[in-house]
Write a sequence for this structure.
């Protein structure tokens, strides 16, 4: 399972960070970055929520 971030459309709202700050962090550049890629199936629901709630559809869950 991987998270793909479309950095061209992320506007740094931080909705994803609000859901899982241990995975997502909006950087000084105003774009979200992955803090950790160390997630498992237990994290799938949170990641799906982040994908669904991202206002610009910048996130995609792969696998
Ligand atoms: S919710 Fe979407 S637009 Fe907002 S920081 Fe996360 S990836 Fe970027």
């Amino acid at each position: 399972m991987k998270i793909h971030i479309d950095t061209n459309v992320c506007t740094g709202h931080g909705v994803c960070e609000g859901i899982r700050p241990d995975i997502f962090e909006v950087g000084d550049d105003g774009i979200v970055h992955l803090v950790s890629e160390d997630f498992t199936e237990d994290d799938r629901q949170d990641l799906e929520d982040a994908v669904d709630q991202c206002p610009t559809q910048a996130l995609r869950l792969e696998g």
